[in-house]
Amino acid sequence: MTNNAPRTTQTRAGTVFISYARADDERPPYDDTTQGWVKFFWDQLRWELTDRGARQAKLWLDRYDIDPAEAFTQVIKTAVRDATLILPVFSENWVRSQWCHQDITEFVASHADPGSWLIPVFKNDPPRALLPEVMQGENAREGYRFFTQDETGMIHEFYWRGLQNRTAYLELLRRIAQYIIERLDLKTPANREGHATGRTIFLAVAAQDLCDARQRLVNDLTTAGVAVVPVINELPDTQVEYERVIRSALVHAEMAVHLLGENGGITLDGGSEPILKLQLRLVRETAVARPFPRILWVPRWLPGRGHERRDPFAALGRLGGLQPGEELYGEGVTDLSQWLRKRLQAVPTAATVFVTSAAGEDDDLVADLANNLQNLGLRVRAVFASEAMPISDDTAHVLVLWGKADRPALDALLARVPGDARVTCLQLPGDDEQAKRRFFRQRVYLQKIEALPANLQETRELLGRVGIMASGRAL
Fold first, then answer.
1. N-terminal to C-terminal alpha carbon distance within the chain
2. pLDDT in tens, 233-256
């Protein structure tokens, strides 16, 4: 829904209007220690924003912001119109309140593109049909759900007569606070400029069913200093223009992540395939010339599907299955976010991993391992036995493949390695076993392996053991 009404700028910057049903802020009877749901939420969110350096963000709540002598209705209308963001606490009580619906009506009438300034919070699971129009149809969003639903359909609220699920509740608070900071542009200069890591990830545009999940990933990754491409507020009109956007975004990306739900997304003018298939095809074409890690997120549990579970491999089959260099991930968006950030901590882009050997007979091992490391998004250089070891300021790690080389050849190679580099000998079985058993050299680490890693997951695990990359979890 789009509204081109002019926006006021005098008081709106930095204000979040909280729309709630008064029944949702009642305290349990005969319990002086438990706060109402909304009061507790307001206090926690206020603290979270302050803790993150965004104390200036104003949370407008009528219990604090209306003087008893003021005209109640007019003050609320003015506050809604002057707010930048609106945060409705959706519940069974909210959807049945005329006043709550009026909050949204006023906000929609006075804001351009109101859906992009809405922060949907769900206390429980009211009927979707009773939500306001801005939350219906193509505008429907997952929002922040402060409850879970078990296999029987029973709702378990995170805050009910007190805090029931502290970890889940505070994680949602953190995400909401970060979203508010991003939308109100309240990041401190240190957060804006000093936290960048130089990493870039391609995060494919999602279809409607996973739009909120993509926004969550964008927020988490950018907070961690990772650049996310493409930056798209609205899709181009034609497939030709969209392909240009995608190819441009892939130029500097070191990893691609696709979000695959049950909806393939729209088909653009001049095209014959939905955007999910289009993006996957373009990324696969790019990876032929420049291999890089590609993650296909196919969550087992989809938003809004309750306890209905799907088979990620069956869902992926509709897109041609998994191709070489691609990895399947089936856990929830929180796990995916943490896993991506951990994986991107592997090695700074300014650092190079050198893979080398001391004998020509081991050069094939060098080529195989260097290619695997490159597929993980690392910056790699292969140095074969006949080549001189380059001296470089960004040489962070040197991996020496020791299979058939004798001890003198190995010692000669190690003498040429830059002094500040971390050196690990990957010792394979065979040839001079006695020399390998008696090997010791200061500042050179030994890692015995039976064979080179067979796939990307085994490669990540090996890099975890030698201190180059945080060991990846099994997919």
1. 39
2. 567 778 898 898 898 888 778 889
The domains of the chain, with CATH numbers, are: 15-184 (3.40.50.10140), 195-343 (3.40.50.300), 352-465 (3.40.50)
Under DSSP, the state recorded for 245 is: H
Give the chain's mean pLDDT: 81
The pair of structure tokens assigned to 397 is 């790690």
Q: Cα separation of 132 and 272, whole Å?
A: 34
SS3 266: coil
**What is the C-alpha separation between 29 and 124, in angstroms, rounded?**
20
CA 110 to chain centre: 32
Q: Where are the beta strands (DSSP E) in 320-404?
A: 326-329, 352-357, 380-383, 395-402
| Cα 422 from Cα 440, distance rounded (Å) | 15
The better pLDDT of the pair 79, 88 is held by: 88
Mean pLDDT of the region 24-42: 92
The CA distances from residue 460 to 331, 337, 364, in Å, are 19, 18, 20
User: Would you place residue 189 in the very low, low, confident or very high pLDDT band (cuts 50, 70, 90)?
Assistant: very low
The arrangement of strands across the sheet holding 422-427 comes to 380-383, 352-357, 395-402, 422-427, 444-448
**Range 198-205 average pLDDT:** 86
Q: What is the pLDDT of residue 378?
A: 75
Report residue 106 as tokens. 């006023």
- Would you say residue 75 has pLDDT above 60? yes
Phi, psi of 86 (to 5 degrees): -125, 130
Determine the distance from the C-alpha atom of residue 44 to the mean position of all C-alpha atoms in its chain, rounded to a whole number: 24
Which residues are CB-contacts of 254 (< 8 A; sequence separation ≥ 6)? 199, 200, 201, 292, 293, 349, 377
331 DSSP 8-state letter: S
Q: Which has more confidence, 59 or 348?
A: 59
> How many other C-beta atoms can be found within 10 angstroms of the C-beta atom of residue 67?
7
The answer to whether 367 and 380 have CB atoms below 8 angstroms apart is no
Residue 404's contacts (CB-CB under 8 Å, 6 or more residues apart) are 359, 361, 362, 430, 431
Beta bridge partners of 207: none
Q: pTM of the prediction? A: 0.43
Closest CA to 376 of 468, 281, 312: 468
Question: DSSP state, 7?
Answer: P
Which amino acid appears at position 371 of this protein?
Answer: N
The region of weakest confidence among 17-31, 257-271, 434-448 is 434-448
